[in-house]
Amino acid sequence: MASITVENYLKQLYLEQQNAAEELVAMGKLASAMGVVPGTATSMVKALADSGLVSYEPRFGARLTKGGEQLALHVLRRHRLVELFLVKVLGLDWSEVHDEAEELEHAISEKVLERIDKLLGHPSVDPHGDPIPTAKGKVSEERLVALPEAETGARTKIARVVDQDARFLQFLDRAGLRPGVMVTVSARDENADSISVKVEGRAALTLGTAAAMKILVEAI
Amino acid sequence: MASITVENYLKQLYLEQQNAAEELVAMGKLASAMGVVPGTATSMVKALADSGLVSYEPRFGARLTKGGEQLALHVLRRHRLVELFLVKVLGLDWSEVHDEAEELEHAISEKVLERIDKLLGHPSVDPHGDPIPTAKGKVSEERLVALPEAETGARTKIARVVDQDARFLQFLDRAGLRPGVMVTVSARDENADSISVKVEGRAALTLGTAAAMKILVEAI
DNA sequence: AGGGGGATTTTGATTAGTCAAAATCATTAA
DNA sequence: TTAATGATTTTGACTAATCAAAATCCCCCT
Q1: Strand C contact with A47 (CB < 7 A)
Q2: How does DSSP assign B61-99, residue by residue?
Q3: Distance from B179 to chain A by nearest Cα, in Å?
Q4: Given a cut of 80, is residue A172 above it in pLDDT?
Q5: Is A109 on the interface with B (CB under 8 A)?
C-alpha cells in the first residue's frame, strides 16, 4: 500500500500537472505545494520513480506514469466524495470540508467509499464543482471558462471554484457566488483589472481579475 | 498532537487495564496486543511516560495517567461513534465495522465527530454494546453479567459482545445473538463446559463457556 | 544458597520522511 | 565567452517507530 505521504505526493503531482499544463512538474513547485524543502521533493520523487509511479528527468521535473496517475485519481476520488458527503450528509459548510477531507481521504476503505458514492447517488462533482473521478479512474471533461472570459451581459451558471482557501470561499458564499448560481458579467474594466458580476436580486459586485479567474462558468 | 501510534498505544493500554482488572499492564501483554516485539513496547512506554501520559514502573508495567486516560477515552469515543455511524448511516454490518473504525478514528476531526454524534442522537453504546465515552471523557457504568452467569430459565437481554473478531460476530449474527435480543439460558452442563441458549423462535443453541463468556446480558 | 526460566530491558540497526547547508548545474546577462 | 543567478541535487544528520538478539532481572524450585 502507498503510504499517506506517497498518496499526497501523487495527488499533488496530478494537480500541478493539471493547472500548470506543462509536461513536467518542477521540484521547486512540488516542494512548495507539499510544504517541504526542495531536497525532500527530489528524494521523494526518486523513490517514486523507483516504484514506477512517476517518471523523473533530473533537473527538469517529474511526470506521473499511468500507474501513478491511477493512484492519484483514486485519492482524488476519495477526497472529493468525502467533501460532498460532509456537506450533504453531515451538513458542513463547503468552505471547511477541504481540510477535513485531506485527512479522511487516507483512512477510507473501498467498501465505505462505495457506500458513500451510492448514498450520494454517484455524483459527478464535489461541492466546489471539481469533477469526481470514477472508480475506474476516469474524469469527465468539462467545457468551462473563467468568469472574466464570459461574454458581458450573458447569463451563465457558476460551475466550479478553483481555490480551496476557506476565507475566499466564505467570501464567495456571502456574496452568493456558489456553484449552480446564475450570474451575469455586467461590466469589465481593463484598467482597473476588474469585472463586475450580478447575482439575481443582489447589488452588482466588483472582483479583481485574479479572484474572478478562480470562478469557472459554463461555456455556452 | 498525539501521533496515530501514540493514540493506539493509549487506547490499547486502556482496554488492557479494563479487562485485566490489574493495576499495571505488563509490557508483554501490551506488546502482543499491539502486535510488536516486547522491546518496542518498553521503549514506547518510556516515551509515553516522558510525555506524562502513562506512569511506568520498570519490570512491573504501565498505567495510564489521568491525562493519558482522557486521551484514550477520546480515541475510544471516536472509534465507537464511527462504528455506530457506519452501521446506522452507511449500512455496514456490525461484524465489519471494527476494522474500518480502526483507521477512521485517527482521521476524524472534533467538528465532524460532533456532527456524527448529533446525527445519531447522542447514543450511549456502539453496535457491539460497548459504551461510548462522552466528549468530556465519562463512561457510563453498566451492570452486566456474562451469559454463563445468568440464571437458568430467566429471560434476559443481550447487552454487549466483548470480541471484535468478524467471524465470531458473523456466527453470532446468524444465530440471532445480537445486542438487544432476548435470550434464555435453557441448560448448562459443567462437564461439557457448555451452556444452551434459546432465542425467540429458534432451536436451542449450545455454546462453549469461553464463547458464552463473551456475551454479556443485563443483570436483573 | 544456587540455578533455571521466563519476562523485561538494552543495544545496535533499519526504514521513511524530513531539514540545513554545501555542491552542482543550466541559463541568462554582459 | 564568462560570470552571475537561481534552481536542483547531494550530503550528512535527525526523529519516530520498529526488530533481532544479547543482557539483565526476578521469582521459584530444589
Answers
A1: yes
A2: EEEE-HHHHHHHHHHHHHHHHHHHHHHHTT---TTTHHH
A3: 23
A4: yes
A5: yes
